[in-house]
Amino acid sequence: MALFAVLQTTFLLALLPLRTYQSEVLSEPLPLTPESLNVSINSTKQCLHLQWTVHNPDYHQEFKMVFQIQISRFKASNVIWLENYSTTVKRNQVLHWSWESELPLECAIHFVRMRTMVDDARIPAPRLWSNWSSWEKADAQNSLGDHPLYVFPKDKLVEEGSNVTVCYISMNHQDNISCYLEDVLIYGRQLDQNVWAFEFKNVSFIRKTGTNFYCKGQGDPEGVVLLVSKVLEEPKNFSCETQDLKTLTCTWDPGNDTGLIQLPSYTLFESFSGKKTLCKHRNRCDWQVTQDSQEMYNFTLVAENYFRKRSVSILFNLIHGVHPMAPYSLFPKSVSATNATVTWKVYSIGSSSALLCQLQLLGEGKVIQQHNISVRVNGEYLLSELKPDTEYMARVRCAYADHFWKWSELISQNFTTAEAAPSEAPDVWRDVTFVSGHPTVTLFWKPLSKVHANGKILFYNVVVENLDEPSSLKVLSVPAPANSTKVTLNQSSYQICVTAHNSVGPSPASTVAISGHPGNENVEEGRMNGTEDGFPMSWKPQSRNATGYVVEWCDSPQHLPCVLRWKNLGPTNTDTVISSGAFRPGVRYNFRIYEISTKRMAHLLEKKAGYLKELAPSYNPKVNMSNLTSHSFTLSWKDYPTESQTGFIQGYYVYLKSKTGEKCHRGFEKTFLTDNSVCCKYTIDNPDQKTFVVKDLQPESAYEFLVTPYTSAGEGPLDDFRKVTTPDEYSHILIHIILPMVFFVFVIMIICYLKSQWLKDKCYPDIPDPYKSSVLSLIKFKENPHITIMNVNDCVPDAIEVVNKPEGSKMQFVGTRKSPTETKGTKPAYLDLLPTEKNYSGPGPCICFENFTYNQAASDLGYCGHFPVTPQAPHCQLGPLTSPEHLLKTLEQSYMNSLGEIPAGEANLNYVSQLASPMSGDRESPPTNPPEPALCSEYKMQMAIPLGLASPARSENSSLSSTALLDPREHCH
Amino acid sequence: MSLVNDINTLVICQVLSALCLLHLIIFTITAPSFGSPHSHLSLSLAQLQDQGRPFSNPRFSSPTLSLETLPSTDMPFEIWHGLEDGVRLSLTQEAFWSFSQHFRIAMVDQHILHHGDSIVEDQLWEARLKAKGLAGNLAAIMTSLGLPSPAANTPLGPVPLGDSAYRKKCRGYVIIRDYSFWTDRAVTFLGELKAKYSQ
């Protein structure tokens, strides 16, 4: 019964509204006019905001209505917008509607009106529009000041890519206003008498401080800044995770900054719980996990700015998003040479959850061990198989064990294992030199690798054992890092052991044996070619019992001292490739291959030389040219070192260029040089040939030659041609004639010089001796056998001149005679020699005579005769001679006479007697009646007088050729 | 006589200190701007480069733009040179105090215009400190010379040209332009003072 009553009541209640509705529908529809229409301007958003009410006292319910709105610009008739706005209207409700103008509202007056129509299904048709409301005016220019120029909109926020319209109002109707967008002149369209508009489409972001638009008239420039925003991007990589199951952290990539001071807001919304939070950061947001055991979360991230809203959602399971915090307190403990124990701690997650931790061991940057350990609070693990004295890194990361999603951050710790004794013998080699028959051994060893050193090598022990005298043992300790030592030995066999020592102990010993005598060095050197990988070489074993082979070389043979390198090879190796970073192209490397005997003795097997890559010679030999003839010359370059070349010298090219451009000689081939000049080339394919004879040349021709070596890589530089010109063909003949002639003349001259005295004696003696005169013999022999020679003793000295002038004894002068004009005017020099009476201070008259017969002029002229003297010449008298004036007069007279009376070409053989004093006398016949002054007279030596001075001697009165000289120093000795 | 010397020495020290500060201002702001060969403000360069054209254009000049709250730059040099030292000291001190106030406004403007770029704001802050320091130095010189102490510097009232982003940029431009003018004038004036009291 009660149930029935309840159902009845419910039914009645359900019918009640239906009844009410039926009564309203049936009511008469009335037109509803908008009331209290108010229009306001929002300059920031450039919006017209409309507000109105609909008053209908007859209806108490909500109605669906349509409002038709008209907007006009500048004048009411200029309708620019018509829109129907539908909404549900309650009784006395204040309605709002906004319209955003593309043109800044300040630049134009706007008019708004509207009408309504009920658009509700409950109201029967017909549905009629109400009357228009009156026009409402929206005029923003009323609020402007008294500036002459205004630009709108101010601080307009614009999204990149959108369109925007800017306008200016010239209050004083200026017409010379120009407007610029970022200094670029812009032209707009005139909207009204004093209003211009500028429309910009698809504006772009330039800078955060906005894009400047300004107009200049007569006053200050006025402008606006368009604050252009980049488009808000949708958040990317949106994800959430938790470290401790208490706090969720959601992160995302917000994309590019919009560039506006108005940053976009980010809101995190969870749909299951209906909660949301405003994020404090633009790329991260924290969300507190509630205690209601919510496992699933549906997050929506909403990014919003002035222009748009972006959102992205994820469905998140809390357990599946656990990202544990990084472990901490990672320490190595109990570190030995090969083992170490590491411990660490983790942050617990929940009360019963465990973490899966991964322990990695890194050596030299690489993971060499990896272990997974389940950890609740403290982790520990023993690392084994470690290498001594090695630095390792242990690092740990952990993940949620119940559901692995992501490893935590890594933590790491370095540790170094303890040292151990070196595990391998050092690689030792030796260089043996014999000084005075005694071997001097330089031992070299390579530093042990880190793997084998097992610690820091402190020193090397070198034990030298004389095998011939086992008791003799010599120990050397060489501190590291030295890698060589020198040992001088006797002519015995030795065994040398080298060990490396670190702080723990020695390494195994490396042994070399040294023979006391030089081995066989006479091994022919082979050649080989290098490759990119190095020098491949092979050899033939000499002994079947070889314990190994060693290849040695110098890394930089061009630099001394040699940096010895070697490579140890096992007994089964008969080939290898020697490579080194120090190998360079164009360098000759010499390799020596040794065989190691069972007694560790090294025997030279082979020598090899090669180039990693042969290069063309870098310079040419210095060529000497010799044996130059008109048809050939010889070239030689004996000192050219081929070993230091950049490749194996295979021979030489001899280049020959001729000025005439004639064809190449036999053996030469024509070639072109780099400068396109033609040249002849001769190839010498024997590198040991270092001379070459260039033949078949043309005499008196210019040639240029060059000798350059060549290797497999090419020839040397062709830039140093030398010039040679072949001589005339007959020049050598001339040389053969002229040289002997010159030599002959020279010999003659020498002979003449040496025999000049003899010649003089023969031809023109100083004191002619008639008896010795060859002329006389000639005369006697030829013509006049009766000729006699006057004896001087028969003459009165200095007074008589006897001239025998037979006609038949005439002889022609051989030489040239001086002309009279040459002798004329020449004042006899002897006049100055004559003393005056004043000068004479002697005790009495004392006259010394000199023989002036000999005439220098005659001597110089080569006369072999004497001038003729006339018989009329007065006799020489002693008395007047003591008077200088008289003597001078006499001499002048005789001189003048001689000039007049000696005709040219009439020189006959005359004899002029010598003046001889009785004191000196003629040994054969002294004078019988010597004059009285002769007591003090003496015979003077003949003196040579220059031609001019001696001229008077040719005079007729040359009987006085002996002139008295009154020199006081000569008096009366 | 000794007192006069002491005063002169004190003035010289203070003038030198002020000159050092001025040179520091010029040294730290060394870039051409506003087309004036004496205006060297890297501050202006940094700030105006960020404002965009026309402000960043080196040839940009708008002499009609002015701020009535800024110290006047209208006085011809001949008249300025004819003023007494005390008057010129007072005017200079007031000017730099005013600039220190205006730089604060410029900083706020830049913060609004250029959110996130602290370089320009830092430079404006530095310029403000130096202008303030120079005003203090000039006040000390006035005191040493026995001139009336400068009036208590009152806080700056409303400054025009701040009602839009464009006008904020204009305001910054005018502040830096006039600051350059007063810096050049102060360098010359303090140089004269130094020469005068060194004799």
UniProtKB/TrEMBL annotation, chain A:
It is found in: Membrane. CDD domains: FN3. Residues 1-27 form the signal peptide. Residues 951-973 are annotated as: Disordered. GO terms for cellular component: plasma membrane. It holds the Pfam family LIFR_D4. Keywords: Disulfide bond, Glycoprotein, Membrane, Receptor, Repeat, Signal, Transmembrane, Transmembrane helix. It comes from the Eukaryota. Residues 326-420, 425-521, 617-729 form the Fibronectin type-III domain. One of its GO terms (molecular function) is cytokine receptor activity. The chain crosses the membrane at residues 733-754. Residues 954-964 have a biased composition (Polar residues). InterPro entries: FN3_dom, FN3_sf, Hematopoietin_rcpt_Gp130_CS, Ig-like_fold, LIF-R-like_Ig-like, LIFR_D2, Type1_Cytokine_Rcpt_Type2. It is a single-pass type I membrane protein. The keyword Secreted does not apply. GO terms for biological process: oncostatin-M-mediated signaling pathway. Heterodimer composed of OSMR and IL6ST (type II OSM receptor). Heterodimer with IL31RA to form the IL31 receptor. Belongs to the type I cytokine receptor family. Type 2 subfamily. This is Oncostatin-M-specific receptor subunit beta.
TrEMBL record, chain B:
The keyword rRNA processing does not apply. It is found in: Secreted. Gene3D superfamilies: 1.20.1250.10. GO terms for cellular component: extracellular space. GO terms for molecular function: cytokine activity. GO terms for biological process: cell surface receptor signaling pathway; positive regulation of biosynthetic process. It comes from the Eukaryota. Keywords: Cytokine, Secreted. The keyword rRNA-binding does not apply. SUPFAM superfamilies: 4-helical cytokines (SSF47266). Belongs to the IL-6 superfamily. This is Ciliary neurotrophic factor. The lineage of its organism: Eukaryota, Metazoa, Chordata, Craniata, Vertebrata.
